[in-house]
Amino acid sequence: MSEPIRHALRKYLIMGSQDCQRPPDEILRDAIAAGITAFQFREKGAGSLKGDKKRILGLELRDICRTHHIPFIINDDLSLAEELDADGIHVGQDDKSAEEVRRMFPNKILGLSVSNDTELAGSPLSVVDYVGAGPVFSTRTKADAKNPVGIEWIKTLRTKHPALPIVGIGGITAENAHTVIHAGADGISVISAITQAADIQSVVEKL
Ligand SMILES: Cc1ncc(COP(=O)(O)OP(=O)(O)O)c(N)n1
Ligand SMILES: Cc1nc(C(=O)O)sc1CCOP(=O)(O)O
Ligand SMILES: [Mg+2]
């Protein structure tokens, strides 16, 4: 399991319609053509879709991922993950507990956010497939993001957990992504670096 996960974490796009200035399906197709390795549907925050509109968009994006063999992961919404038969689920420290999600979905990819040593110490790492560590840098995309951890904490995390699949998140760009990888992360996850890019092909190549 560990090697496919590490590969999937390399260039991980996270996106919802609220992040997009053009149709989300176009952005996802462009990002897949450019080489992303996983996708998380995160329909959340100001301007996000609810109910049927969210479900319909999720279904459309899931089908694009399926066609191109890209893991389709859903943020937070367990019932939508079940309904769309998502490949995985990402939860944070304030969402349903990772142990419970693992009991409900024994075979799905499960990601958990960690943002500091206290959260790390309280996290059931044995039941998750990867951790999303961050925000590495400051970000304007998530209003309630915690304090930036910096690449030093990614190094600490890697030293403490040599075999743990880690993806960095938060404020990661084509210019700073290499520092996150050099610090020990298996990959980087981004929202704005890709959704706001004038040239997605070029950004994904650099990432
Ligand atoms: C890969 C990845 N890492 C971290 C997060 C953040 O999850 P969470 O802390 O639950 O915050 P929301 O995304 O739900 O606002 C993530 N989504 N993906
Ligand atoms: C969704 C999310 N979670 C974070 C965390 O630290 O857990 S930071 C973040 C937003 C990432 O967006 P951008 O790539 O535009 O900075
Ligand atoms: Mg969450």
From TrEMBL:
| E.C. no | 2.5.1.3
List ligand-binding residues for 4-amino-2-methyl-5-(diphosphooxymethyl)pyrimidine.
Answer: 40-44, 75, 113, 142
Q: Hey, which pathway is this one from? A: Cofactor biosynthesis; thiamine diphosphate biosynthesis; thiamine phosphate from 4-amino-2-methyl-5-diphosphomethylpyrimidine and 4-methyl-5-(2-phosphoethyl)-thiazole: step 1/1
According to the entry, every stretch annotated as the Thiamine phosphate synthase/TenI domain falls at: 12-194
Which UniProt key words apply to this protein? Magnesium, Metal-binding, Thiamine biosynthesis, Transferase
Q: Gene that codes for this? A: thiE
Which top EC class applies here? transferase
Which parts of the sequence bind Mg(2+)?
76, 95
Q: What is this protein called?
A: Thiamine-phosphate synthase
Transferase found in the keyword field = yes
Pfam families in the cross-refs: TMP-TENI (PF02581)
Q: What does this protein do?
A: Condenses 4-methyl-5-(beta-hydroxyethyl)thiazole monophosphate (THZ-P) and 2-methyl-4-amino-5-hydroxymethyl pyrimidine pyrophosphate (HMP-PP) to form thiamine monophosphate (TMP).
What does the entry comment about cofactor binding? Binds 1 Mg(2+) ion per subunit.
Top-level taxon in the UniProt lineage = Bacteria
In this chain, 2-[(2R,5Z)-2-carboxy-4-methylthiazol-5(2H)-ylidene]ethyl phosphate is annotated as bound at: 139-141, 171, 191-192
Family per similarity comment: Belongs to the thiamine-phosphate synthase family.
